[in-house]
Specification:
With 152 residues, the chain is mostly helical. It has five helices and three strands. α1 runs parallel beside α4.
């Protein structure tokens, strides 16, 4: 997972987990649904925002460090050797991004697990993002944030 796409993937992950509530009990969702909603952007920012920002900064620093090292080591290399060295460094950076992305993914999974529990406890069978709600529904955002330890 690329860190530069972390926010987009994070929002999609929350939406997928929210949709899982419906998938787990599709008949109930079709016949009688209680709709809940969450502010997924707020959930992600409040619970994983620091990790995402720290990961972005760490990737930027590692990219700069690798670039400096690459520039120094490749100065006297021919084009084929430069390309090989570049590919090696690119692979190292991608592995580092993947490692950091895994940590963020774990935080997003925690949000999803808590969201599912809160929805079930409140009799909610369908969860959507706040942006999709025109009127009505049960706001689960605060309770999810409390359970995650973000709010008192």
């Amino acid at each position: 997972m690329k860190i530069s796409r972390a926010w987009m993937l994070a929002a999609a992950a929350v939406a997928v987990v929210a949709a899982a509530v419906v998938i787990l009990n599709p008949l109930a969702a079709q016949t009688q649904s209680t709709v809940g909603y969450v502010d997924s952007e707020l959930l992600i920012q409040a619970y994983a925002g620091r990790e995402i920002e720290a990961a972005r900064e760490a990737v930027r620093q590692e990219r700069d460090r690798l670039q400096e090292e690459f520039d120094r080591l490749s100065a006297d290399l021919d084009e084929a050797a430069k390309e090989q060295l570049f590919n090696e460094y690119q692979g190292r950076l991608e592995a580092y991004e993947q490692e950091l992305g895994t940590e963020i993914e774990e935080r997003l999974n925690e949000i999803g697990e808590v969201l599912e529990a809160v929805a079930r406890e409140n009799g909610v069978t369908v969860v959507v993002d706040r942006a999709a709600v025109v009127w009505g529904g049960v706001d689960l955002t605060g309770e999810v944030l409390r359970r995650l330890g973000v709010l008192d």
